[in-house]
Amino acid sequence: MIVFNLACEQDHTFEGWFASGEAFEQQHARGLVSCPICGDASIRKQVSAPRLNLGHTHAEHRDHKTGGEELQAYMGSEQMLIRQFKQFIMNNTENVGAAFAETARRMHYGEEAHRNIRGRVSREEAEELREEGIDTMSIPGGIFLDEGVQ
């Protein structure tokens, strides 16, 4: 199982649990994924850390006739997951750098179109955004050190 953070056009956020990323894409293309709050089928993935719901231990997976190989093929190594996460962030966000807090506020207050962004803020700025009801996610900077991402 893979869990995605999703949002509708009204910015209701929710989780979606799917057998795989491909299963999400297929269901989304067929209009089967909708917001549980308002029913909107215009759904987009939010930036989130990869999360797998394994439901049982690795030993139990090895005993399952297909689970062990499929899990290994999907997960690969820890480094592969980190690379996939980095690539997802890079492909699905716009780097606004030090203008992150300002850009997030403009989007939150409807002054600018909503989109996935990444950038840098101080702890104080991050706290101010939270107090204003603007959801953000912190990612340890070390994850991107080898690629120079800001």
Secondary-structure content class: alpha+beta
Shape: globular
Number of helices: 6
| Strand segment tally | 5
Give the ordered list of helices and strands: EEHEHHHEHEH
- Which runs of at least 5 residues are low in confidence (pLDDT < 50)? 57-65, 145-150
List the strand order in the largest sheet: 2-1-3
Mean pLDDT: 77
Span between termini? 31 Å
Work out the strand percent: 5-15%
In which range does the helix fraction lie?
Answer: 25-40%
Main β-sheet, in a few words? 3 strands, antiparallel
**Whole-number radius of gyration?**
18 Å
Number of domains: 2
Textual characterization of the structure:
The chain has 150 residues and is of the alpha+beta class. It folds into two domains: 2-76, no CATH class; 91-147, no CATH class. 38% of the residues lie in helices and 14% in strands. The protein contains six helices and five strands, in the order E-E-H-E-H-H-H-E-H-E-H. The protein has helices at residues 21-29, 58-63, 67-75, 78-92, 100-108, 123-131, and strands at residues 2-7, 13-18, 44-45, 94-97, 117-119. A three-stranded antiparallel β-sheet has the order 2-1-3. It has a two-stranded parallel sheet with strand order 4-5. Strand 4 (94-97), helix 5 and strand 5 form a beta-alpha-beta unit. It starts with a strand and ends in a 19-residue tail after the last helix. Mean pLDDT is 77; it is low at 57-65 and 145-150.
